[in-house]
Amino acid sequence: MSVRTSGPTGELTGELTGEPRTEPTGELTGKVALVTGGSRGIGAAVAARLAAAGATVALTYVHSEKQARAVADEIEAAGGRALVIQADLTHPEAATAAVEQTVRDLGRIDILVNNAGFLTYGPLTEVTIEELDRVLAVDVRSIFLATQAAARHMTDGGRIISIGSCFNGRVPGENFVLQATAKSALVGLTKGLARELGPRGITATIVDPGPIDTDMNPADGDSADFQRGLTALGRYGEATDIAEAVAYLAGPGGRYITGTAIAVDGGYTV
Predict the structure, then answer these.
(1) Which of 19, 176, 188, 194 is the most exposed place for a label (fewest CB within 10 A)?
(2) Cα–chain-centroid distance for residue 144?
(3) Where does the chain have alpha helices with state H?
(4) Could you report the per-residue pLDDT of 55-90, keeping only the tens digit for each?
(5) DSSP string covering 117-152, please?
(6) In the CATH scheme, what is the homologous superfamily, with its name and number, of domain 4-264?
(7) Which intervals hold domain Ketoreductase (predicted)?
(8) Please, are residues 166 and 117 in contact by the beta-carbon 8 Å criterion?
(9) pTM value?
């Protein structure tokens, strides 16, 4: 099999990687956030950052309950509250169930961060039906279903934030057709959501990461020099860079931003 598919991107942050915790800001106090794929990498960094801003955070994982619990423990050690949910988003019912459990256990949902996804690459001619279905199930269908479920509960001020990819604006070479297809679907979805949910005071946005140093795409990996060379800054970003953008969009600063994508890519798409 030439198409290589991995799980939700990332690594743990804060105490778990030796990085300093983000100081609490209180901007999201009283809010409840659900972060899919929140057990590591970008998702873990987002969960920790939203909790530092005062939100109660639910986070999903697929296989590693231990990693998810470590993220939750770090949030709670800092005085926050976290809920861990097992959710295999390749199954259609899982995304909706995660939202409903969040509302049931935490009382509401104000912020949905659609982070779970697969880093996928390989020749177009060798992509199998199974690989296509798996990527679209997680990177497109689960986002649609989670958003649909969350929209039933959100009130004015709700935020729907999806983690996209720099491939939304630029495909630098071959072997990325499936990844680019899946992530580009978020653009149409987000624009449609902005129009439909805007009258209810709910925003919909995308954060498009560039090369981010995670266990799935390490800054010392085989393709790292190539990826660095595609950025204007000449370096990888950190998971916390994406988390900061998400926190901004989830907070007061994001109240008039909707239907668009924010590139956090070091100039990858320049």
Answers:
(1) 188
(2) 14
(3) 41-52, 65-77, 92-106, 129-136, 142-151, 177-197, 224-229, 239-250
(4) 999 999 999 899 999 999 999 999 999 999 999 999
(5) ---EE--GGG--HHHHHHHHIIIIIHHHHHHHHHHT
(6) NAD(P)-binding Rossmann-like Domain (3.40.50.720)
(7) 31-215
(8) no
(9) 0.90
